[in-house]
Amino acid sequence: MGKNRFKYSEITPERVFLNRRSVLTKGLSFLAFSGANSSSWASEGYVKSQWSSNAKPNSYEDITTYNNFYEFGTDKSDPSKYAHNLKTRPWVVEIGGLVSKPGMYDFDQIIKNIALEERIYSFRCVEGWSMVIPWLGFSLSEVLKKVEPLSAAKYVAFETLVRPEEMFGQRYNILDWPYREGLTISEAMHPLTMLSTGLYGKELPNQNGAPLRLVVPWKYGFKSIKSIVKISFTETQPQTSWNMQSPREYGFYSNVNPDVDHPRWSQATERPIGKGIFAKRKKTLKFNGYGEEVASLYSGMDLSKFY
User: Fold this and answer.
1) Fold category of 8-298 in CATH
2) Alpha-carbon distance 243 to 240, whole Å?
3) Burial track 256-265 (b if 16+ CB lie within 10 A, e otherwise)
4) Cβ-based neighbours of 250, under 8 Å, separated by 6 or more
5) Higher per-residue pLDDT: 15 or 210
6) Would you say residue 19 has pLDDT above 50?
7) Which of 24, 160, 244, 287 is 20 to 30 A from 166 (CA-CA)?
8) CB 293 within 8 A of CB 2
9) What is d(CA 80, CA 60) in angstroms, rounded to the nearest whole number?
10) Chain-centre distance of CA 22, in angstroms?
11) Is residue 287 a contact partner of residue 307, using CB atoms and an 8 Å limit?
């Protein structure tokens, strides 16, 4: 297995996790949401993932007040201040392209009969900062398999909601909205790639990408697109927002690779959030420490060229 595996008893989460022993005895549960004001689902039926890190999670406050979500502003504190305006029910995700079962899927139905797993990931971003987050979610592949991708599908593209009346950052030309991301089909089907619906045993906060976001733990943070409303299967490589914005600086793959510097800064080290601005920087691990699991996806590729 990969590095830094996590012992479940070592999590130091919020009060809701203190009663997790009785929950774990239930094993996998098949859950459906009951409505916009319900959060009880988030603390029921979760199990530890085999991919968990042994690093101590950041506090709930760290995770929910230090965010990149340009739809709500460019400062790290902006999403926590303004994302409460976003209405996350009802929520429909369009799934289409090269699949046998395209359609408009209600969010509640997407996760119905899919077992939710709690997962702990060390989540590193290109700015040189990192967090460890107790995500609640499930493998993206569990959704993708249900819509039956066609053999011609080589990539999976994602888009974020566009609703400038609630996401005021979209009123400005910060990026070419909607926010877009993409993965190869093999990356999307890897069990490490997950859809998150919560964290710390609670429903996913708006500033962290509610109600549904991607988490790709071996890639830089901007690959983990938030508030998803569209998933498309394509034969050709899809456009991605930061690559469109600055192709010299942001490649399609965006794997954590400390050996390749960003044109404007080194990515060899990272600053752990929550330990103060003078905290000692840590060495960045290639593939975020998950090389044993994912390096085979890039066999024969020059990762300084396909960055």
Assistant:
1) Sulfite Oxidase; Chain A, domain 2 (3.90.420)
2) 5
3) bbbebeeeee
4) 126, 222, 240, 242, 243
5) 210
6) no
7) 244
8) yes
9) 12
10) 28
11) no
